[in-house]
Amino acid sequence: MTTTPVPMGSSPAIGSTPALEMRGITKRYPGVVANDGIDLVVRPGEIHALLGENGAGKSTLMNILYGLARPDEGQILLDGKEVRITGPSDAIARGISMVHQHFMLVPVLTVAENILLGDETMANPIFLDRGEASRRIRELGTRFGFEMDPDARVSTLSVGWQQRVEILKALYRQARILVLDEPTAVLTPQETDEIFAVLKRLAAEGHSIIFISHKLYEVLEIADQITVIRRGKVVGTRTPAQTNEGDLAELMVGREVQLTIDRGVSHPGKPVLEVSSLSVADDRGSEVVRGIDLEVRAGEILGIAGVAGNGQDELVETLVGLRRPIAGRISLAGRDVTGQSPRDMNEAGVAYVPADRHRFGLVLPFSIADNVVLTSYYREPFTHGQIRDDKAIESAAEEAIAAYDIRTQSATARAGTLSGGNQQKVVVAREFSRELALLVLDQPTRGLDVGSIEFIHRQVLAKRDAGTAVLLVSAELDEILELSDRIAVMYRGQLVATVDGRTADKQEIGLLMATGGRERTAELAVAAAAKEPS
Amino acid sequence: MTAAVPAAAEDRASRTTLRRIWAAVGLPLVSIILALFVGAIVIIASELLVGKGGLDLGLPLNAYGALFQGAFGSTDALVQTAVSTAPLLLAALGVGFGFKSGLFNIGAQGQYLTGALGAVAMGVALAGAPAIAAVPLSVLAGMAAGAVWGFIPGFLKATRGAHEVVTTIMLNYVAISLLAALVAGPLNTPKSISPVTKDVGNASLPVLIGSNGHLGILIALLMVALVWFVLYRTTFGFEVRTVGANPDAARYAGMHPRLLTILTMTICGGLAGLAGAGDLLGVSHQMTSSFSTTVGFDSIAVALLGRSTPVGILFGAILFGAMRAGAPLMQIQAGIPAELIDVIQGTVLFFLVATPVIGRFRFLRGAHTGLDTTQITRSYGEASR
Amino acid sequence: MDGLINGLYGIPILGILIQFIGYVVHIVPDISPLLLQAATPLALGALCGVICERSGVVNIGIEGTMLASAFVAWIVGVAIAPLLPADPSPIFGITPTLLIALAAALLTALLISLVHAWLSITVRADQIISGTIVNIAAFGITGYLFQLIQKGSPTSAGAFSAFTPPAQLVQIPIIGWIFNMFLNQGPIAMSVIVIVVVTQILLFRSRWGLRTRAVGEHPRAAETVGINVIRLRYRNVLAGGLLAGLAGAFLTMEASNSFQTAMTQGRGFIGLAAMIIGRWTPLGAFGAALLFSSSQAIAQSITFAPPGGDLGNILTAIPAQAYDMLPYLVTIIVVAGLIGRSIPPAADGQPYEREAAT
Question: What is the ipTM of this complex?
C-alpha cells in the first residue's frame, strides 16, 4: 500500500507571507453547513491541493474566494491584508483567477478573443489591438511550454488545449492565485501530464495554485500542500512526504460506516441482467462507458460506487433504454434487449429511479395521479381504447399514496407542490408498484431527509427480498455499503473491481473510487519515474 | 377533517374551491381591468391631444358603454358577437393546443388564410352541388389546407430542427402572397374589375340565428368540447401535455416527442384553418385578393389570456370577440376608433407577463402570477444545432 | 401531361437564362436607386435584429417598432411644421421640422425597445410574447390615433429629398449606375451603407462587438470575466431599436411624406428574414435585403416592361406574388438547413439569470 509519492516539482523557495489566507470561513445554506470554520493558507509558489468528496464543501469555499458567494463568517487575507471580494471582476482585479470545471469559453470565438474578453487590449478606445494580443498570447504560451495559435477557434481545440486557453486567460490577467476546479476530470492521462508540467512551471514562477481534486495519486504527484475537507470541515493538512494514498483516503471518506437498518440475508437466484462489453457515448459523443461487463442476479443488490461523472449516468440511461449503446449487449432474463426503447424496457419489467427526478422522474405541473401512471397511462385499466379512465387512475394514485406514505392533501395535487422526499416517493411508488425483474436506482436518495432515505431503503430491500434484481448507483459510499450485496467500483467508464458487500472495507473502496485501483496507480508511478531520468 | 365537524370541513372545502378559482382567474381578470383602465387613459389623453373637445372624463365610460351595447345590447349584437368570437375561438384553440405541447405557433394567421383559401376553392367548385355535400366538403377542405400549413413547420421542426417561430412567421407571409396569386389567377372570376373569386353558393354555411349567425359558431363551440376532451380525456392529449411540460420525462414514458410535434402542429393548423373556412363560408362567401384578418395576433392574446385551456380560451375569445363586435358602435357613438381594441389587447398581454407590476398587488397572492407559459420558446438558439 | 414535359424539353434553357441575365443587366441601371430605397427599411430592420440577437435577445417586435416610429415621425412633423421656418436646406431638403420629427421617431423607438428589453431581460418573460405585445400595441395605437387624426385634415410636413449626383459620375459607362444607386438617395438611405459597414466592423473588431458576441453565445462565461450581461443586453436592444426607428422614419420622411395604416406591411419581418439569411452579420443581412428588394423590383419591371420572346412569356406567366413570397420561402429553406444552414447565437432567446451572490 505504500506507493512512493512521486517526487515534487522543483519547489521554489516558499515565502513567509502567505499569498492567500482564509480564516474560519463558515457558509450555511438552508439545511446544511457547507463550510464550517475552514482555514486555508496558500503561500506564493505553492501548489495547494484541496481534496474531498463531492459535496464536501470545496466548491463553496472556492466560490467564496471568487466572490460568487459571501461567507457568513470568516476572513480572507491577500498578502496579509484583509479583503472583501465582491464579485468575479473584483476577484480578477485582485489577481485571483478560476478555471472552472466546465470551461467558461465561448466555442465560436477564437483563442485570442476568448482570452481578451472582459480585459481587452485596445489599440484605441474603440478597436481591439489584435496584433499585440496575439503577440502576448504566443509569448505567454512559449514561456510555459506550448505553442498556442491565437487565431484558432476554440470549438476546434481538444479539451486539453481548451484548458490551456483557460490557464492563459488567467495568466493574461496577471493572476497570482490560480484556482483549478477538477482540472483533470476531462483529460486523458497524457493531457494530464502535460497540464501538470505547465502548472509546475507556473508555480516555479511564483504563482500560487489551488488544485481541487478527489484523485489521490494526482494530488500526491502535483501538490506541495494537501488540505483535506470532509463535510465542510478541514480534517487534515499534509505534505506529500508525510502521507500516502491510504491515509488520504481515510481522511477523505472517514472511517466509520453507520448501518442504520438491518438488510438481512440475500438469496441470489438466476442472473437477470447480463451486460457484456457495453460501450456508451455521452451527448458530446465521447465514449464514457468503456466495455463494461456486469451481472445482477435475482434477489441481490449490486452497488456501483464511484465518483460522480465516471459514466454512471450514461450506463444507467442505457440500461433503461434512454440511450443507445455504441457497442455491446444487454440481456434481461436471457433475452437480448440491446437498444430497446424505454417503453420496451418498462414492459420487460425494468423500473428506474433517476438521479434527477425533475428531469426524467416527474412532470412537476401534473397531478400526483398523472405522475403515478406516467409509464402505464396507455394500458388497461387506465385507458380503454384511447379514452382515459380517470377513476382508475385516481384510485391507483390513492393506493400509491397510502402504500408509500406520500404526504399530500389529495391525488390531484400537483407534484411540484410536494416536498423533495414526497416527490421521490411518488417516483418510487410508480416504479415499484408492479411485477419487476430489474430495479435500476441512480442516486435514489440524493437531497432527501433522513426519514425519506430510510423509507426508500426499506422499500428497496423489500423488492430485493421479493426476488428483484437491483442495480444501485450512488456517489454516497455509505448508501452503497448499507444496501449492497456486491459492490463494483466504476472509474473512468470501467468497472475496476468487484467486492463482497458484507466484507467490504470503506477505505479500500474509497481508494478504488479515487484511484481506479492499484494497477492504475502503479502504472502512473512507473510513467512518472520514466519521465524523470535523474 | 373528521366527520365530527362536517360543517367546518365543508366550509374549508368551499374555501379551497374558491381559492382554486381565484388562482385560475385572478391574474387574467386583473390584467383585463388594468388594460381597460389604460384604454380609458388613452381615450382621454388622445382626445386632449387631437380631439376638439377638452378634458372629458366621461368619454371612456361612453365609449365602453357603446362597446358593451354593440356587443350585447340586442339580439343582432349578440349574434354579431358570436360571429366574431367563432374564428377567434378556433384559432386560439389552435395556438393554445400548441402551447400545451411547448410549441409557439405564431402561424395562426397563415393557417387561417390557407384555410379560407381551401374552403373557397372547394366551395366555388361545389357551389352548385347539394348543400349536404358541398358544406361539409368545403369545411373539410379548409381545415385540411390549414392543417398542411401547420404540418410544414411541425415537420421541419421535428426533422430539421427549424424553429417553429421563424417558419410560422414566414409561412404567414407566404400565405398572403399565395392567396393573392390564386385569387388573381386560377380562382378569379372572369371579367371582374378587381380580382375576386366566385360566390361559394350552396357551400355557404347555413344561417341558424339572426341575420348571419352561421353554423360555424356551433362548430367552434363543439371544437372547444372536442379539444378539451382530446387534451384531458385521451391518452393522446396526455402525451401532448407531457411533451409540453417535460420532454425528457415524456421520452422516458415511451412517448415520441418528434411525432407528437408534427401531429400537434398539424392539429393547430387544422383548427386555425377551420376558423378561416368558417369566416369564408359563413360571412364573406367569396374572397378578394386582399382578404385578411386580425385573427393571427388576436388568437395569441386569447390563448395566453385563457392559459391555453379550452375553457379559458372560450372566455377569452368571447371577451375579444365581443370587443370586435362592439367596436363599430363605439366608433359611431363615441367617435372612438376600433383600433382601441388592439391597444387593449396589447396591454392585457403586457400585464399578463409583466410579473413585477402584477406582483405589487397583495390580493393576487395565491393566484398564479406569471404565466405557466412564460417560457414557451425553448432553446431558440439551440434549436438548430 | 406528356405534352407538358415535351414542351419543357423544347425550351432551350441556357438560352433563356442568358436572355434573362441580359434583361436584368439591361433594366437594373434604370431602377438602381429604387433597389437601395426598397432595401433600406429591410436592411435597417435586419441590423436591429442582428444587434439584439447577437447579444441573445430575440426581437420580433421590429415591425411594431418601425410602424410606431413611422407614425410618430409623421405626426410630429405635421404638428410642429406650422411653428417652424419651412425653407428647406439645399442639401436633402432638410428643415428644422424634419430633424425634430426624426428625433421624435428615434425616441419612440427607444422607448418601445425599453419595454421589450425590460420584459425580456429583467422580467425574463418569453421574448416572443414580448415582441408580439410590441407588434399588437404598435398596430393598435398607430391605427387608433391615425383614425382620430384623419377626421381633421391629413397633411404632410414634407420629406427629405434625394441628392442629385453629378451627371458626369452617373454617366460613366458600365459602372455609372452604381454611383447613381448609392448617391441618388435621401439621407437615410444613403447612410444605410455606412451604418452597415460600421456595424460590421464594430461587431468583429471592437470591444463592444467582442462582448456582444460572447454574451449571445455563452453569457455565463462572459459574466465570469466580469462583463455585465444584463447591461450589455439592454444597451444592444436599445441600440437596435434606434435602427428600427430610423427605418420607420425612412418610410414617412423619405420614401413617402405621409402615413398609412399598417404601412410597414411586413418589412420588419422581412428584416428578420434578411438577418437569418445573412447569418446574423450586418453585411450578410444587407446583401439579403438587397436581394429581396431586387427580386421585387425586377418583378415590377417585368409587369411594366416585359422582355420579348420566350423569356417574356415565361416571366409574365409567373405571378407577381411569387416574387413577394421569395424572401420568406428562402428563409424557410435556410432555417431548415436544406441549403446553407444558418445558425443563431447559442443563447439567443434565453433569459439570463445572474449567478446569485449569496
Answer: 0.85
Average pLDDT of the segment spanning C122-146: 91
Q: What is the pLDDT of residues B45-78, one digit of tens each?
A: 888 877 666 677 788 999 999 999 999 999 999 9
When scoring A377, A379, A409, A423 by the number of chain B Cβ atoms within 10 A, the one with the most, hence best to mutate, is A377
C-alpha cell, A25: 470561513
Chain A environment of B241 (Cβ under 8 Å):
366
Which of A100, A108, A120 comes nearest C207 by C-beta? Answer: A120
User: Cell triple for residue C202?
Assistant: 464594430
Amino acid at C28: V
CB contact A120 to C (< 8 Å):
yes
| Segment A83-110, tens digit of pLDDT | 999 888 889 899 999 888 788 899 999 9
pLDDT band at A441 (very low <50, low <70, confident <90, very high): very high
Please give the C-alpha separations between residue B281 and each of B130, B143, C114, in angstroms, as whole numbers. Answer: 15, 12, 43
Q: Name beta bridge partners: A330.
A: A275
The rounded distance, in Å, linking the Cα atoms of A62 and A69 is 9
Looking at residue A1, its pLDDT comes to: 37
Handedness of CA C107, C111, C112, C113 (dihedral sign): positive
C-alpha to C-alpha distances, B298 to A214, B262, B293, C140, nearest whole angstrom:
57, 24, 9, 12
Q: Select from B295, B374, B307, B304 the least CA-distant residue to B342.
A: B295
A128 CB within 8 Å of a chain C CB = yes
Quick one: which of B151, B165, B102, B107 has its CA closest to B381? B165
CA-CA distance, C264 to B349, in Å (whole number)?
A: 22
Nearest chain A Cα to C203, which residue? Answer: A127
* First-last CA distance in chain C: 74
- Is A257 within 8 Å of A478 (Cβ atoms)? yes
Smallest CA-to-CA distance from B262 within B154, B133, B379, B372 is with B154
Evaluate whether B82 touches B314 at the Cβ level (below 8 Å): no
pLDDT at A469 over 90: yes
Q: Which amino acid is at B36?
A: L
Q: Is residue A280 within 8 Å of residue A329, measured between CB atoms? A: no
Contact A118 C227 (CB under 8 A): yes
Question: Helix %, strand %, coil % for chain C, to 5?
Answer: 70, 0, 30
Q: What does the alpha-carbon distance between residue C228 and residue C243 come to, in Å, rounded to a whole number?
A: 23
Matching residue, cell 386583473? B30
Nine-digit cell string for B296: 393571427
pLDDT 10s digits, A186-222: 677 777 888 898 899 999 989 999 998 877 778 888 9
Residue A253 pLDDT level (bands cut at 50, 70, 90) = confident
Nearest to A322 among B232, B233, B252 (CB): B252
Q: What gap in Å lies between CA A163 and CA A328, rounded to an integer?
A: 32
Strands in chain B per DSSP E: 207-209, 213-214
The pLDDT value given to residue C11: 57
pLDDT of residue B365: 59
Integer Cα distance of A177 and A46 in angstroms: 10
Strand-pair partners of A275: A294, A330
Q: B339 vs C144: CB contact, 8 Å cut-off?
A: yes
Least Cα distance to A509 among A347, A313, A305 occurs for A305
Measured in degrees and rounded to the nearest 5, phi and psi for residue B256 equal -120, 90
Q: Using an 8 Å Cβ cutoff, are B344 and B323 in contact?
A: yes
Residue for grid cell 414542351? C7
- Kindly give, in sequence order, each residue whose CB lies less than 8 Å from that of residue B237, ignoring residues fewer than 6 positions away: B229, B230, B231
> What nine digits make up the cell of B146?
390549414
What is the Cα–Cα distance from B138 to B279, expressed in whole angstroms? 12
Q: Which of residues 353-372 of B touch C (CB under 8 A)?
A: 353-356, 371
Other beta carbons less than 10 A from residue A190's beta carbon: 10
